Amino acid sequence: MNQQISIVIAGPRGKMGREAVSMVSGTPHFTLAAVIDSKNAGKKVSDLEGMPSLDVPVFDDAKLCFAEIRPDVLIDLTKPEIGKVHLEQALEHNVRPVIGTTGFSDEDLERLQNLAKEKELGAIIAPNFAIGAILMMKFAQMASKYLPDVEIIEKHHDQKLDAPSGTALKTAQLVREVREPKSQGHPEEREDLPGARGAELDGIRIHSVRLPGLVAHQEVILGGEGQTLTIKHDSMNRTSFMPGVKMAVEAVVNLDHLVYGLENIIE
Ligand SMILES: NC(=O)C1=CN([C@@H]2O[C@H](COP(=O)(O)OP(=O)(O)OC[C@H]3O[C@@H](n4cnc5c(N)ncnc54)[C@H](OP(=O)(O)O)[C@@H]3O)[C@@H](O)[C@H]2O)C=CC1
Ligand SMILES: O=C(O)C1=N[C@H](C(=O)O)C[C@H](O)C1
């Protein structure tokens, strides 16, 4: 029988938060214990516009919420500067965080990894919860051993705050693990318009597109002599992320350290 897991969601009115509220409240062994919403303290989820009729309290302060509710897991789907703070506060209150919020630097990750280690508490930071996107990243890593010239094009809706996307960064980090840093393109190439060659991580170029109409899409293009390989993933809607969120919640309760990337859970 599945273990009953008590969950708090931060960012419930957001595009991802709404999907998460629906997934958690519809999963028999999950209990939605509270939500964290900085604008609606003291209300119930059922008072929030367009939300399901749930008698679940709304807190504006994460620390207060964790102290009063004592949930097993926090799901954070807010924005970069808030996600980091919530993760730390969750660990301080012995709550295991599942963080979908993107925009973490290498320094942030190291600090948070150390904090989870000190507390011997599970935590997951997942730049992308979609199983197809995780496979796309793994396939790109495998392919870059043989075709080490790699460029990433990520395309998102125009409400996205962070660039490059967490997925593009994670892809570049996975590629970096298996290939030497290298300079791509002509050694004497120049940018006649700054930014024309995109952002760069150890020589891997990342190009970020933001347009209305898009959801979340990424292509990894690898080039070799006389050939290219394109690995592409598209999320058409945000329900595509929910099986991964569910999997992360089920996994984090059995972890005693921070895991960065769901590829470490599905293997
Ligand atoms: N890992 C993954 O697979 C995915 C990750 N993401 C990431 O998830 C995050 C959210 O994305 P998305 O839902 O599209 O964004 P939205 O802007 O739609 O939602 C963000 C929500 O966070 C809320 N928020 C802001 N500050 C706080 C706070 N202090 N406490 C509680 N809630 C707060 C906002 O509320 P308000 O209206 O009050 O500002 C808003 O409702 C982003 O970082 C995005 O990159 C997105 C999709 C998939
Ligand atoms: O903001 C989004 O929408 C998404 N953010 C994540 C990212 O930065 O990679 C995951 C997905 O691409 C959607």
From TrEMBL:
Annotated EC: 1.17.1.8
Protein's UniProt name: 4-hydroxy-tetrahydrodipicolinate reductase
GO MF, any single term: 4-hydroxy-tetrahydrodipicolinate reductase
Protein family (similarity comment): Belongs to the DapB family.
Lineage of origin: Bacteria, Bacillati, Bacillota, Bacilli, Bacillales
Location of the Dihydrodipicolinate reductase C-terminal domain: 132-265
Pfam families listed in its UniProt record: DapB_C, DapB_N
SUPFAM superfamilies, per database record: Glyceraldehyde-3-phosphate dehydrogenase-like, C-terminal domain (SSF55347), NAD(P)-binding Rossmann-fold domains (SSF51735)
Subunit structure: Homotetramer.
Function: Catalyzes the conversion of 4-hydroxy-tetrahydrodipicolinate (HTPA) to tetrahydrodipicolinate.
Positions of NAD(+) binding: G11, P12, R13, G14, K15, M16, D37, G100, T101, T102, A126, P127, N128, F129
Positions with a binding annotation for (S)-2,3,4,5-tetrahydrodipicolinate: H157, G166, T167
Annotated compartments: Cytoplasm
Reactions it catalyzes: (S)-2,3,4,5-tetrahydrodipicolinate + NAD(+) + H2O = (2S,4S)-4-hydroxy-2,3,4,5-tetrahydrodipicolinate + NADH + H(+); (S)-2,3,4,5-tetrahydrodipicolinate + NADP(+) + H2O = (2S,4S)-4-hydroxy-2,3,4,5-tetrahydrodipicolinate + NADPH + H(+)
Pathway: Amino-acid biosynthesis; L-lysine biosynthesis via DAP pathway; (S)-tetrahydrodipicolinate from L-aspartate: step 4/4
Region (Disordered): 178-197
Keyword entries, A-Z: Amino-acid biosynthesis, Cytoplasm, Diaminopimelate biosynthesis, Lysine biosynthesis, NAD, NADP, Oxidoreductase
Predominant location category: cytoplasm
Record domain Dihydrodipicolinate reductase N-terminal: where: 5-129
Record-annotated active site: H156, K160
Species per Swiss-Prot/TrEMBL record: Fictibacillus terranigra
